[in-house]
Amino acid sequence: MTYQPNSPEARDIAYHLHGYTNARRHDEVGPLVIDHGEGIHVVDIHGNRYIEAMAGLWSVALGFSEKRLVDAATKQLSKLPFYHSFTHKSHGTIIDLAEKLVTIAPVPMSKVFFTNSGSEANDTAMKLIWYRSNALGQPQKKKIISRLRGYHGVTIASASLTGLPNNHRSFDLPIAGVLHTGSPHYWKEHRPDESEEDFATRLASELDQLIQAEGPDTIAAFIGEPVMGAGGVVVPPRTYWQKVQAVLKKYDILLIADEVICGFGRTGKMFGSETYGIEPDMMTLSKQLSSSYLPISALMINDRVFQPIADESNKIGTLGHGFTAGGHPVPAAVALETIKIIEERGLVAHAAEVGARLQTGLRRLTDHPLVGEVRGVGLIAAIELVADAAKRSALDPVGKLGTLVNGILQKNGVISRNMGDALAFCPPLIITAAEVDDLLARIARSLDEARAEIGA
Ligand code: PMP
């Protein structure tokens, strides 16, 4: 693309290094420069309007123009623009938020530690698990099991937990002590004639074998997203979590639920853990926690985790961990207001209701020649694109079809995201039934256009 000198696009190309972007091709592809937001829509600098069908990065629960969040931030900025949580300091907003999170947690939780991104929350989980094992006199119990296709962030530890090649290759990751077990992606990974139930049983058995092979007393924790997001929206088989938890219990292995995407209504319940009967010892939260208006994340821990950590910090003198902006009052005020709005407007039940409409509508597309599978729960879904539905084969190379359909959707006023050939949808929780229908119509039209383009 060529742009006017000094245009926002030209300056973006000149000065801005983007994450999750091909840095060499950026000047060719060019940036989509967003100017402002209105409800579930964003508008670019040329006036084109898009349904933000990914809620930004699975995160803008309340849409792009919630005045109450702006007011909450402004009020907090005027009153106390910064304070911290080190050396026994605190402030009212973070106390309110910690209490609120413990109150709404799906299982008994003891304490909340505040961080600024999902990656930091997971990184902190890993460090506190190591700290706890040392406190318990089990220095060998340090390994953490995560899953292939899982996504837990990009810091050195959390990127190691992430089970995607892109996050490891050329970064010299993963670090030692992180193990990956299979992902519950039935459509991609089941064996011929294997039922979903048998597939879940096999995954649990493979997990058990991995633990046995490594030595059960060396494994400290297992981490997983209730529904995998960035790995392609992987909805687990119905009994998967129950079977995995039985294995973890057998070996006294802690369970971390990464609720960074699933938390706050995404799956049609307040937490993904509720949707799947997960009973975590630790939970990481971010994204919809503040509707992403400001960065904030949190790690919740139960008493089994907290008590040894408290003992160890007492022995050493202080818990040597904490971020300058962890527990920052302004994002905390926005988070409190976000949760309040979600509760007041019944947005969790709403997500279940409009989510069902989205899921049904997308499943009607299963007959389309480019659709291999539709999966999802609540307001998170993916279409697995195939060049040949009968053969389940992708267009060569993998991701070409996903990129093509994603581009056509953008032209048709929808921002979605393709992870390879899995096309994800994760709209704001405030989406209405009429807006779901509008989105579905645009998706159907885009698939037809893609089909015509490939045919041509
Ligand atoms: N966990 C999950 C499940 C996520 O989806 C993400 C972000 N997509 C993260 C962790 C990392 O969060 P952040 O990008 O804020 O570091």
Automatic annotation (TrEMBL):
Cofactor(s) recorded in Swiss-Prot or TrEMBL: pyridoxal 5'-phosphate
Protein's GO biological process: biotin biosynthetic process; gamma-aminobutyric acid metabolic process
Keywords: Aminotransferase, Pyridoxal phosphate, Transferase
GO function terms (MF aspect): adenosylmethionine-8-amino-7-oxononanoate transaminase activity; pyridoxal phosphate binding
Pfam families, alphabetized: Aminotran_3
Gene3D superfamilies attached to this UniProt entry: Aspartate Aminotransferase, domain 1, Type I PLP-dependent aspartate aminotransferase-like (Major domain)
PROSITE patterns named in the record: AA_TRANSFER_CLASS_3
InterPro entries registered for this protein in UniProt: Aminotrans_3, Aminotrans_3_PPA_site, PyrdxlP-dep_Trfase, PyrdxlP-dep_Trfase_major, PyrdxlP-dep_Trfase_small
Similarity comment: family membership: Belongs to the class-III pyridoxal-phosphate-dependent aminotransferase family.
Protein name as it appears in the record: Aspartate aminotransferase family protein
Organism whose genome encodes this protein: Aliidongia dinghuensis
